[in-house]
Known about the structure:
Elements (H helix, E strand, L loop, with lengths): L2 H19 L18 E4 L19 E6 L1 H4 L3 E5 L7 E3 L20 E8 L1 H6 L4 E2 L1 H11 L7 E5 L24 E2 L1 H9 L8 E4 L13 H6 L5 E4 L12 E5 L9 E3 L2 E5 L7
Parallel strand pairs: 5-7, 6-8, 7-9, 9-10
Antiparallel strand pairs: 1-13, 2-3, 4-10, 4-12, 5-11, 11-13
InterPro entries: KFase/CYL, KFase_sf, TAT_signal
Organism: Amycolatopsis vastitatis
Protein name: Cyclase
Amino acid sequence: xxxxxxxxxxxxxxxxxxxxxxxxxxxxxxxxxxxxxxxxxxxxxxxxxxxxxxxxxxxxxxxxxxxxxxxxxxxxxxxxxxxxxxxxxxxxxxxxxxxxxxxxxxxxxxxxxxxxxxxxxxxxxxxxxxxxxxxxxxxxxxxxxxxxxxxxxxxxxxxxxxxxxxxxxxxxxxxxxxxxxxxxxxxxxxxxxxxxxxxxxxxxxxxxxxxxxxxxxxxxxxxxxxxxxxxxxxxxxxxxxxxxxxxxxxxxxxxxxxxxxxxxxxxxxxxxxxx
Length: 275
């Protein structure tokens, strides 16, 4: 096996051995190697289709145009026009905070993080403006254990099932979005206790970690600092386990990018089953 592949395999073995053991990285337990073909991937991304893609108000329209065909040109090619945050995407800290890292300042490890899923579908169904509280997070930890440091904390609000319909933005008569998200105290707690750390973040199946009615984006401004990211408009969250998985965000790295449209995968080590 070439050296680079050996290093990658060893690194993933250490990563997933730690995840499975429930210990922190500092404990450095001895673990058996993990074969890369034993990892299970689940797709957490919507397909980018102009017919179904809900676009955040004010963002450019999403367009796909066929510019070459096999009969005419010998190959098939589309021209894509979209914002960097159209559809499933990840955001870089500089998306909301001047002077913070942009897409090309991020490290690969910033986009590959342990993840936990918090199911708030019932509360979001009862109140589309629901803001997840510190008590919600503490109650989750009583059942599932402490959120690992530098994790991506993913909210499953049920909005992924509304994708492609007017119910997804859920815009009121006043033009305001009504989507659930994190409360400001909850995100401050995640940051202050190290659970988001330097390069964790938040994830959601809605447009943003902010409650839709908060047009100041207070939560986003807190999350998007240092090397923290936000994964947004996630799909298929039913398949993401509550604990034990990692998330991997891909996509083009644009110069001075605010983030990137992305294919986001849930990466499940051996012994961790899809949700």
